[in-house]
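To whoever is on call:

I kicked off a structure prediction for a single chain this morning and the downstream step that reads the tokens threw a length-mismatch warning. I double-checked the sequence; it's 71 residues and nothing unusual in it as far as I can see. Pasting both halves so you can look.
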Amino acid sequence: THKTKEVSYRLEKLNLLQRSIERHKEDIFEALHKDFRKSNFESFVSEVALVIDEIKVMKENLKEWARPKST
């Protein structure tokens, strides 16, 4: 529909993404080990924790970022 989604919708999707990553982190570790020979620790630090932290930053700032800009 080319309409910007409500903040509540976006927060819901970010929460869903975060829970999904946390729920499937062992699968992520396994895939990263198969593809890149990364250890679980390296996978957690360089992939999983990094993305989770970015999601948290987005959730904390989304309302401010979504406000209309004054001209």
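Update from on-call: the warning came from a stale cache, not from the record. Cleared it. Sanity check on the structure: The mean pLDDT is 95.
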